[in-house]
Design brief:
This protein is an alpha/beta fold and about 375 residues long. It folds into 2 domains: about 35 residues; about 325 residues, TIM Barrel, CATH 3.20.20. Helix content is about 45%, strand content about 10%. It is built from 15 helices and 10 strands. It has a 5-stranded parallel sheet. A 3-stranded parallel sheet has the order 3-4-5. The chain has a two-stranded antiparallel sheet with strand order 1-2. Strand 6, helix 8 and strand 7 form a beta-alpha-beta unit. Helix 1 packs antiparallel against helix 2 and helix 7 runs parallel beside helix 8. The chain starts with a helix and ends in a 5-residue tail after the last helix.
Length: about 375
């Protein structure tokens, strides 16, 4: 729209004696329109089923278990929050506009600080609702289970039920649990169960409460900076504490392109050389810290072709899957920057758009 207004202003100005050529602007607008992807998506003439692994939902019934706090904790006062409560027609129309064939739904954990039995009720209800919704709309939706991570024994049971009985494709987890990082031994049974079942865990950050004062002010820094930092810390602990060595078959998907870690991963390779007293001598990593990024999966929510080029160079194109964060309007054209990435081959684009996720989640491509 901005480009079109600029062209019209230029034409009018020329009539008044000022020469302004809008040809390039118009060409750019047409090129942008032509590049805008629509369903069905094809790469080099071959159909690709696009699978968005980062899409959110909520259920009013789960929030109701928390009383007045429920709706606030489920979504919050941000654009798109109301659409986390899915109205099928509206969501399908949005997916069509985004050129997304299938969403893998997940619910951001708002129950980690709740008492065990209440949290278990929330999780049970959500997983049942997710399974029911996806079964009724199986061509367009699948989902990651919720887990009561503050009670690892329950989480192990919930994950097994979700995968074996409810047809869910893994689980969505936060960045930590009540200040305890995932590398803590109490969570090992959960990672062992995910590894046994062969399903991924989708890490979606919830911010860093300890930095609330520093992140106050304009810019929504709690999310814009805090969320990627939360993921960066979570992944770094899994690497440096040897968790990924202990569970080499564990499949982890990191939201928002993995936070900041892929942007500065090589610094991690030097940390223990520079400050050996700050590294546990009993933990003998099997490879350089940066090399673990090549066994982690990352969503494509990095906005630009240049950011895609860098992420792929750091972690490998085979480790990237499509992610939009819908219905939060971070990137409403989630496939377009992948198509615009000249650094990617056609096969790499097709993998990122859906083929890698189909293999990872055992879905029909």
């Amino acid at each position: 729209m901005t480009t079109r207004r600029g062209f019209l202003r230029g034409s009018a100005a020329a009539a008044g004696g000022i020469v302004f050529c809008g040809c390039n602007l118009l060409h750019g607008a047409r090129a942008q329109q032509a590049a805008r992807q629509k369903l069905p998506v094809a790469v080099n003439g071959r159909r690709v089923k696009t699978i968005d692994v980062h899409a959110h939902c909520n259920f009013h019934e789960a929030g109701a278990l928390l009383g007045e706090d429920g709706a606030r904790l489920q979504a919050g006062p941000v654009n798109g929050a109301g659409e986390t409560y899915i109205e099928v027609g509206q969501r399908l129309a949005a997916m069509d506009a985004q050129a997304v064939d299938m969403e893998i739904l997940s619910i951001n954990p708002f129950w980690y600080n709740r008492e065990r039995d209440l949290a278990a009720k929330i999780v049970q209800l959500q997983n049942e609702k997710l399974a029911e919704f996806c079964a009724a709309n199986s061509e367009r939706f699948s989902a990651f289970a919720s887990l009561t991570l503050q009670a690892p024994d329950l989480a192990v049971q919930e994950l097994e039920i979700a995968v074996k009985k409810q047809g869910l494709k893994g689980a969505a987890i936060g960045g930590s649990v009540n200040g305890v990082d995932f590398s803590d031994a109490r969570f090992h049974p959960i990672w062992a169960k995910a590894e046994e079942l062969g399903v991924p865990l989708f890490i979606h950050p919830r911010g860093i409460p300890e930095l609330k004062k520093r992140l106050a002010g304009s810019g929504w820094l709690d999310n814009a900076i805090g969320n990627p930092l939360d993921t960066t810390i979570a992944l770094s602990h899994l690497i440096f504490e040897g968790t990924l060595d202990r569970f080499p078959g564990l499949k982890v998907i990191a939201a928002h392109g993995g936070g900041y870690l892929p942007s500065y991963a090589d610094r991690s390779d030097h940390a223990c050389m520079v400050g050996p007293k700050f590294c546990n001598p009993d933990i003998k990593l099997r490879k350089r810290p940066s090399e673990y990024l090549k066994q982690i999966y990352f969503d494509s929510l990095v906005f630009t072709p240049e950011a895609m080029r860098h992420l792929a160079a750091q972690v490998g194109p085979s480790q990237i899957v499509l992610g939009s964060d819908y219905p939060f309007p971070w990137q409403l054209a989630p496939v377009d920057h992948i198509f615009a990435s000249t650094s990617l081959s056609d096969d790499e684009k097709a993998d990122i758009l859906g083929r890698t996720a189909a293999r990872l989640l055992n879905l029909a491509a």
